[in-house]
Amino acid sequence: MRVIIHDPYLSEPPAREMGAELVSFDALLERADFISLHAPLNESTHHLFGEAAFTKMKNTASIINTARGGLIDEAALIAALDAGKLFGAALDVLESETAVTHIRTALVHHPKMIVTAHTAWLSEQARATLQLRAIEQVLACLKGETPYGLINRGLSK
């Protein structure tokens, strides 16, 4: 599998270290077979995946969102799935986790959708691993070491 990523805060060397190719957002949309979202929700990412983005994606592509519900315009997603512009979608997050709307009902019942209850990460092993990693990073900092999960390494010293 070739991994391509788009991240406006990441430079080419760390991407290469991870074995990934850093690409523009448009290149990601045009080339990816699967897009997995791992972004914060803010003004610049709200509905980042809407009609314009779905139009640029392959009609054989699928999108996976385990980050934040507002990254995807859910009405545009349904329209893209219905029009055959996307193959499928898997959502672990929705714009509203509680509101029952016609769009949410359509998403949950859509034949090209998988919807989970924002618990896709949850397992006993995952919980233990997360706790251990947090402890390891704190201990590294206390020893004056650079924690392994540091993203902005250029600012660390």
What does this structure look like?
This protein is 35% helix and 13% strand. The chain has 2 domains: 32-121, NAD(P)-binding Rossmann-like Domain (Rossmann fold); 123-157, no CATH class. The two termini are 35 Å apart. The chain has helices spanning 12-17, 25-31, 51-56, 74-82, 102-109, 124-142, and strands spanning 3-5, 20-22, 34-37, 62-65, 88-91, 113-115. The chain has a 4-stranded parallel sheet with strand order 3-4-5-6. The longest helix has 19 residues, at 124-142. The chain is α/β, with parallel strands linked by helices and 157 residues long.
- Rg for CA atoms: 18 Å
CATH homologous superfamily placement of the largest domain: NAD(P)-binding Rossmann-like Domain
Distance between the termini: 35 Å
Please write the CATH class name of the largest domain. Answer: Alpha Beta
From N to C, what is the helix and strand string? EHEHEHEHEHEH
- Classify the helix fraction into a percent range: 25-40%
CATH topology of the largest domain: Rossmann fold
Unreliable segments of 5+ consecutive residues? none
Average pLDDT number: 90
For the secondary structure, the number of strands is 6
Give the tally of structural domains.
Answer: 2
Number of helices: 6
Main pleated-sheet profile: 4 strands, parallel
Q: What portion of the residues fall into strands of 2 or more residues? A: 5-15%
Shape: globular
- Specify the structural class: alpha/beta
> Architecture of the largest domain, according to CATH?
3-Layer(aba) Sandwich
Give the strand order of the largest sheet, numbering strands 1, 2, ... along the chain: 3-4-5-6
